[in-house]
Amino acid sequence: MMRRVYLDHSATTPLDPEVLEAMLPWLREHFGNASSLHAWGRRARVAVEEAREEFAALIGAHPSEIVFTSGGTEANNAILKSCCQESGLTDTVVYSAVEHHAVIHPAEALARHGIRTAVLPVDSWGRVEPESVRPWNRPRTLISVMHANNETGVIEPIRAIRDAAPDALLHTDAVQSFGKIPFHVGQLGVDFATFSAHKIHGPKGIGAMYIRRGIDFKAHQHGGAQERNRRAGTEPVALIVGFQVAARRAVEQLEQRARHMERLTRLLRQLLRERIPGVLFNTPEEGALPNILNITFADAHKLDGDALILGMDLYGVGVSNGSACSAGTMQPSHVLLALGRTPAQARAAIRFSLSKDTTEDDIRYAVEALERVLAPMRD
Ligand SMILES: Cc1ncc(COP(=O)(O)O)c(C=O)c1O
Fold first, then answer.
1. Could you identify the atom of ligand 1 that is nearest to the CA of residue 197?
2. Is 102 in the pocket of ligand 1 (CB under 6 A)?
């Protein structure tokens, strides 16, 4: 059988068996609705509230500051739209040029409804210059800058951004960073944050938003009174428990996982440098997540990005050419363009994203596959 090497963990991760085990009782016998008053409902309610308490503690928050959502996309939408619309807290949204589309597109939608928006420029590694937010230091502005980038892994200076704009509301999308680098709401000084379970070996369709206490946050999704009126909809208890266990394990094992992934990412960089002529790195050696390495090629104009990904797939290697959410479209990655790459270089980029389960053999095999895929294309 062909060897299979999955190196697309920033798109999604496999569910950990321990997470699945923890979820199963909540799909089988404990099926109650957490809003029901009877024993079935009370049991579900306890599970949801215990998950909320534990997740809150993992990020240095209070349980009342956590709202479960269907994932990162919903959390980003709810935060941006509620701040500007339902909650009436802000009239301006400022976001970085390298945000995920789950921030950029809601911001653009708000702009169509008359909200003022502005895009923060980034340097050649995709980092926001903290001083550039100073003009936006006003209470009715929401600044949204991701904690770490999903395409390049670069870590944004969230604390410095907070210090440069102490009066603005600050949101960070921590979907990629949570579980990879330490995350603490107090240390970062954020008012809002976004999380997703399926990037940390949890189930798809569940995530959370952190909303700092004292902020009068009104639901963006209306219906029942769940989540203290901040997000309507029957709580998916099994998914919430899965998120809880995945988050617990990610934080408990953070250092050991990070050390492992960092060592392999370094090996990958070294092998690519030795074996792939003309390789260019879109991920800095310092100040990036331990598990992402994004590359492109000096002769990118001669290469076809989709053919690279499909060529790797023929060798059983799963990698991606940018944001998974825009895969399938031929738009060059807005993140790589913001770094100053040419459209051809952005299109030919490859993102390797590792996990705690990636091995040295996986890395060596992936580099060998890339050599073989590139050779005929360059002839
Ligand atoms: C940085 C970032 N934000 C948001 C999302 C969307 O999260 P979800 O898939 O949970 O909706 C992703 C997923 O690719 C992401 O990488």
1. 10
2. yes
Task: Tell me which of 10, 175, 240 to substitute to probe ligand 1's pocket, judged by most ligand atoms within 8 Å of the beta carbon.
Answer: 175
Distance 368 CA to ligand 1 centre (A): 30
Cβ–ligand 1 contact at 72 (below 6 Å)? yes
Given the CA of residue 99, which atom of ligand 1 is nearest to it? 1
Q: How far does residue 49's CA lie from ligand 1's centre (Å)? A: 24
Minimal CA–CA distance to 373: which of 294, 293, 272, 263?
A: 272
Residue located nearest, by CA, to atom 14 of ligand 1: 11
Is the beta carbon of 146 within 6 A of some atom in ligand 1? yes
Ligand 1 close to Cβ of residue 176 (< 6 A): yes
**How far is it, in rounded angstroms, from Cα 218 to Cα 79?**
10
Contacts of 250 (CB under 8 A, 6+ apart): 178, 179, 200, 201, 257
List, by residue number, the catalytic residues: 325
Spell out the per-residue pLDDT of the chain, length 379, in tens: 789 999 999 999 999 999 999 999 999 999 999 999 999 999 999 999 999 999 999 999 999 999 999 999 999 999 999 999 999 999 999 999 999 999 999 999 999 999 999 999 999 999 999 999 999 999 999 999 999 999 999 999 999 999 999 999 999 999 999 999 999 999 999 999 999 999 999 999 999 999 999 999 999 999 999 999 999 999 999 999 999 999 999 999 999 999 999 999 999 999 999 999 999 999 999 999 999 999 999 999 999 999 999 999 999 999 998 644 455 566 899 999 999 999 999 999 999 999 999 999 999 999 999 999 999 998 8
